[in-house]
Specification:
This is DUF11 domain-containing protein. By secondary structure, the chain is α+β, with helices and mostly antiparallel strands. The chain has four domains: about 240 residues, no CATH class; about 120 residues, Immunoglobulins (Immunoglobulin-like, Sandwich); about 120 residues, Sandwich (Immunoglobulin-like); about 50 residues. The chain is built from six helices and 33 strands. The strands form eight sheets. It has a six-stranded mixed β-sheet, with no helix packed on it. It has a six-stranded mixed β-sheet with strand order 23-31-30-25-28-27, with no helix packed on it. Strands 5-6-3-9-10 form a five-stranded antiparallel β-sheet, with no helix packed on it. Helix 1 runs antiparallel to helix 2 and helix 2 crosses helix 3.
């Protein structure tokens, strides 16, 4: 009886000690730390950060804190189970001791108690940490610790499509965890299909609800397993990572095949355009502008490159892709100086209404063309007489680099009141008096010939006949080019030869007057061209008159 009372008292004391130990141990820890006034609380924290943002690599960190709480509870449970077992064993022994001793002797009592009340095996508690990697990230399973199990789970993603994610499971070995916390770091990479977006976006690293998976609730949690029973102790929402909008950009470089050129000479340009962004670009527009007017330029057509003169459209350009485009231009012949060529590139920003683009410029020197010509004038003779026709040939040769336009040629004589006239010619326009000839154009190196004629009047006296041609053009402005041609004109000469000739005069009355036979003969007969006799007779008459006048004067 005494033993029974002692054993009951001992069991009560042990129970009290166990209860006090479960309360005092956390309190003692609290007093030692001095940091808090409450007992440690079991908690799970999740965080994520980029480790290589350019390549979309990150780390997910899980941190369990307050693990001493689990350890203390386990100790208290073990003490209580031990005390309970002892109390049950001692109670059984005390009640049945006397009878057992009677039946089996003193030593047989304990054996009988153990046989009738065998100790129940303790159910071990396990703590399991679980996390689901979200549909937006991939896991580097090769970097996982050996004690972590990775399993594939089929889910429906936010788009309603079938995909797979990984579930990570770790059975915590509490006896090997010496600290109050436990941390696990998992390397992840953003899936390629989510890496590029035209706007900023955040993505959860862990698969929480409402995203579908085989486990309801949050994607990271700690469970306690006792036998077949599972109990979730704590969970925490997923951390998120911010993914910046994908870069967009386009660059262009313009180059000419020469640094300087002559006006009117073709110039070839090369434009290298590159998509420097991360998103594809479509419908890229190109337009050219020049610092000089009247520039003829055109892009060269290529595949997926649609040309309309100085403007063109490129269908598409992928990230990192470059295209080489070509343009040919022809500066106007009348232009010279520094020529600036600017290409403007623009396209719509993917996903937005705004435009992106760039400009590229190139400068070359345009040297002006030389405008000059030569004029040569020749006559078909060097001497002429009244009544003769003189033909002049005028040759205009373009000796410059420009095409001459509106070439005007004018004929005139410097010292006579006569005028030459141009002969009609195809492609040449004459004025009403045919003293001016207009030629529409003469190309460099080419020559054009004109003809002009003049007839010398009968009364024209002997002199040097000087003819001049004047030529001007649009390109040479008011600069005149003159050319002369000289012809000696000689009038008809009369030669008088004295002769003694017997002349018979006869007179015949014809009404009111009469003529000598010689005069009549001269008047009635056609002239043979020999006027020697008539001239001689006239000279004698003149001499007789002069002699008679002199004699009369002397008599007075």
């Amino acid at each position: 009886m005494k033993n029974r009372i002692w054993n009951q008292t001992k069991a009560a004391v042990l129970a009290m000690v166990a209860i006090l130990s479960g309360i005092c141990v956390p309190f003692q820890e609290m007093q030692v730390s001095g940091a808090e006034l409450v007992a440690p609380v079991l908690n799970i924290e999740q965080s994520a950060k980029w480790t290589d943002e350019e390549n979309y690599k990150a780390e997910l960190t899980l941190r369990l804190s307050g693990l001493n709480t689990l350890k203390d509870v386990s100790k208290v449970d073990q003490e209580q189970e031990k005390i309970q077992a002892e109390m049950e064993t001692e109670s059984f022994t005390e009640d049945a001791r006397e009878k057992a001793e009677e039946d089996f002797g003193e030593g047989g009592a304990a054996e009988k108690a153990e046989a009738e009340n065998p100790a129940m095996p303790e159910e071990k508690k396990e703590y399991i940490l679980t996390t689901y990697i979200s549909e937006y990230f991939l896991l580097d399973t090769a970097s996982l610790p050996e004690e972590i199990t990775a399993e594939t789970v089929s889910i429906k993603n936010q788009k309603g499509e079938d995909t797979e994610i990984l579930r990570l499971t770790e059975h915590l070995q509490m006896e090997k965890i010496t600290e109050d916390y436990y941390a696990l770091t998992v390397p992840v990479t953003l899936r390629p299909e989510y890496q590029l977006s035209w706007e900023k976006r955040t993505y959860p690293v862990v698969q929480d609800e409402p995203l579908q998976k085989d486990q309801t609730g949050l994607g990271t949690f700690l469970q306690e397993k006792t036998g077949e029973e599972l109990q979730t102790l704590i969970s925490n929402p997923s951390p998120e990572l911010l993914v910046n909008a994908a870069k967009t950009g386009i660059e262009a470089v313009l180059r000419a095949d020469v640094e300087k050129t002559k006006a009117g000479q073709p110039v070839n340009y090369i434009l290298d355009v590159t998509n420097t962004g991360q998103l594809p670009l479509t419908d890229i527009q190109f337009s050219s502008s020049f610092s000089m007017e009247d520039i003829r330029a055109v892009w060269e057509s290529e595949s997926d490159f649609y040309v309309d003169g100085k403007e063109a459209v490129l269908a598409a350009l992928n990230p990192g892709e470059s295209r080489r485009l070509r343009m040919t231009l022809l500066p106007d012949e009348n232009k010279e100086g520094d020529l600036f060529h600017t290409v403007t590139v623009k396209t719509k920003h993917p996903g937005r209404e705004e435009l992106i683009g760039c400009q590229a410029s190139c400068q070359i020197k345009v040297e002006g063309l030389k405008a000059s010509f030569e004029v040569e004038k020749t006559a078909d003779r060097t001497e002429a007489f009244p009544g003769d026709t003189i033909t002049y040939q005028i040759c205009i040769r373009n000796t410059g680099e420009k095409t001459l336009h509106s070439v005007l040629s004018t004929e005139r004589f410097l010292n006579a009141n006569i005028q030459a006239q141009f002969m009609p010619k195809e492609g040449v326009t004459l004025n009403s008096t045919r003293t001016q000839a207009l030629i529409s154009s003469i190309a460099p190196g080419e020559a054009l010939g004109l003809y002009a004629v003049v007839t010398i009047p009968q009364y024209f006296e002997s002199q040097e006949l000087v003819n001049e041609v004047t030529v001007i053009s649009d390109e040479t402005g008011t600069t005149n080019m003159k050319s002369r041609s000289e012809v000696t004109v000689k009038s008809a000469e009369v030669t008088v030869t004295p002769q003694i000739t017997q002349t018979y005069s006869s007179y015949q009355s014809y009404g009111s007057g009469s003529k000598s036979g010689s005069a009549y003969e001269t008047a009635s007969k056609p002239s043979t061209g020999d006027d020697t006799k008539g001239t001689f007779f006239l000279a004698l008459c003149v001499c007789a008159v002069i002699v008679g006048a002199a004699a009369a004067k002397k008599q007075r």
